[in-house]
Amino acid sequence: MTTAADVPLIRMSGVCRAYRSAAETVWAARDVEFTARAGEFVCVHGASGSGKSTLLNLLAGLDLPDSGEIRVGDVDVGTADEARRAALRLRTVGVVFQEHNLIEEFTAAENVALPLEARGLPVGEAHEEALAQLARVGLSGPADRLPWQLSGGQRQRVGVARALTGRREILLADEPTGALDSAATRDLFGLFRELCDEGVLAVVCSHDPRCREYADTVHEVVDGRLEFRS
Fold first, then answer.
1. pLDDT tens digits, one per residue of 18-43
2. Which residues does residue 72 pair with via DSSP β-bridges, in sequence order?
3. How far is C-alpha 32 from the chain's CA centre?
4. Is the dihedral of CA 159, 161, 165, 171 positive or negative?
5. I want to staple 52 with a disulfide (CB 3.0 to 4.6 A). Which of 17, 97, 192, 205 is the partner?
6. Which sign, positive or negative, has the C-alpha torsion 170, 200, 230, 173?
7. How far is CA 178 from CA 24, 87, 89, 127, 143, in A?
């Protein structure tokens, strides 16, 4: 009997994406086959320029495949219009960037509340939810601080909290520890592990080998091809 936990939240089948110029064709994704389920921590390893960021952009609907199928939740990303893909990011998929992309004039809580306000939640309710998500990632104290008053690791945790607001089920992270020291890196990977144990699906693209220690499955991107490692 198939249960909800058995059904992939993400499925890519035969996905290709190439960038073409007069001089050359660069394959960022080539015949990618990939599935991932709720509660799974997936580490995608690969050198710079191998296609890791393209993989996440395709999953988030920020880029579209040339061919193949991408399903995220109940959405066919490749055929969805721009509004449907934006709704997917607002309600189901949260993205954590290498550079945290916080609004410098807003406090940590205000940054986290933004997606909820965009969904039409009253400001007061959005603020309460933001505080709850900040507490979830271990940042109850600095909720009223501006980004420049936070450490690099704290800013990334704010980015994670923002990506999780509104009960989003999927977390995509693109080199989230690139600007962090060793201790903050381990703390962030440990946080991803805890969130996955709570049922979040995390797909983390990283060249840092420490990511493998926390992941359930490890894939490597080589010239646009996704290869299962463990």
1. 998 888 998 999 999 999 999 999 99
2. 10, 75
3. 18
4. positive
5. 205
6. positive
7. 29, 28, 23, 29, 23
